[in-house]
Write a structure and sequence with these properties.
The chain is mainly alpha-helical. The chain contains seven helices and three strands; from the N terminus they run ααβααββααα.
Length: 164
């Protein structure tokens, strides 16, 4: 190398060696600042309390779906496995196995292989309408009036109760 390049290289190495302790000190100072800020934030949240991350823990608020409802919704959407549901809900699969066991014992869901499906598939709203029994020919011709309920006499007993 040329004399000028050697001199520049020497100066750069010397300056690097001068700054290295300062860089190490800077890292230690930044780590101490971070630790003190976390400690200060914990003191504001309560003694030793962790810094809140935005996720709420504990029982869901009134009107919010609980984990059982959320799992049931996934099953209703076409069946699901525990690991897939746990990943979608962001919780551990062991907790979902407990929920699935409860829903299965209630008869709400059933297990098919590794997948959980609805125990009774929901029918469309048109199929849910009950078909009322048609009256027999004898009843429709006037026979069997004993079983028919009419509006007559509905309010007869109320006046007697009011008078007592």
């Amino acid at each position: 190398m040329t004399d000028t390049a050697d001199r520049i290289l020497y100066d750069l190495r010397r300056r690097r060696d001068e700054l290295r302790p300062l860089v190490d000190e800077l890292r230690r100072i930044e780590a101490a600042i971070d630790a003190l800020e976390r400690l200060d934030a914990g003191a504001r949240n309560g003694a030793g309390a962790p810094v809140r991350t935005g996720r709420r823990r504990g029982r869901p608020r009134k009107g919010e779906p609980n984990r059982s409802d959320q799992f049931l919704a996934l099953v209703q959407d076409g069946g699901t496995t525990i690991p897939a549901a746990a990943q979608k809900l962001g919780i551990g699969p062991n907790y979902l196995y407990r929920i699935a066991g409860t829903l299965e014992s209630e008869g709400t869901i059933r297990k098919e292989g590794r997948e959980y499906v609805m125990a009774v598939e929901r029918e469309s709203e048109d199929d849910n309408a009950e078909v009322l029994p048609q009256p027999d020919d004898a009843e429709s011709n006037g026979g069997g009036d004993d079983d028919l309920v009419t509006d007559e006499g509905v309010n007869e007993g109320t006046s007697e109760i009011a008078e007592e």
